[in-house]
Amino acid sequence: MAMRTEVLEGSRGGMWPWLGQRVTAVLVLVTITIHLVLTHYIAIGHLSYDNIGARLAGGAVVVNDVVLLVAVVFHGLNGLRMVVLDWGLAGSGGRRVFDLVLWLVGIAAVVYGIWALWAWVS
To answer: What's the pLDDT tens digit per position in 3-34?
Structure first.
């Protein structure tokens, strides 16, 4: 079955956001599974502030959490973008402003999330 070209048209989001949505969906599933397994099944004692700090001292846990953070933020904001484009913003001049706002919100969310993790790592 051939994919309809209008699904990937630039006015409806474009190919890269479409592909990014699929890639981040897989990343979210994989990294949330790793996060949950590490948190609930391979536990180092009971969850406490000190215990979480000890877990985050391991580089792999931090890398997993940062990848999870970036994937969730991109996936969520890109999904919001697609819904808004489907509602008719695609043809208006406000699309570029909306995209810029989403990028700024996404970058701010990732920076804030990494800053929150960094408090436990350092």
So the answer is: 555 555 555 567 889 999 999 999 999 999 99
E strand map for 1-122: none
SS (H, E, C) 1-25: CCCCHHHHCHHHCCHHHHHHHHHHH
Which domains are present in the chain? Answer: 15-121 (1.20.1300.10)
CB 44 within 8 A of CB 55: yes
**Is the CB of residue 79 less than 8 Å from the CB of residue 21?**
yes
Residue 68, both tokens: 């999870």
Mean pLDDT of 73-79: 96
pTM above 0.70, yes or no: yes
- Is residue 107 within 8 A of residue 114, CB to CB? The reply is no
Instruction: Judge whether 21 and 78 are in contact, CB under 8 Å.
Output: yes
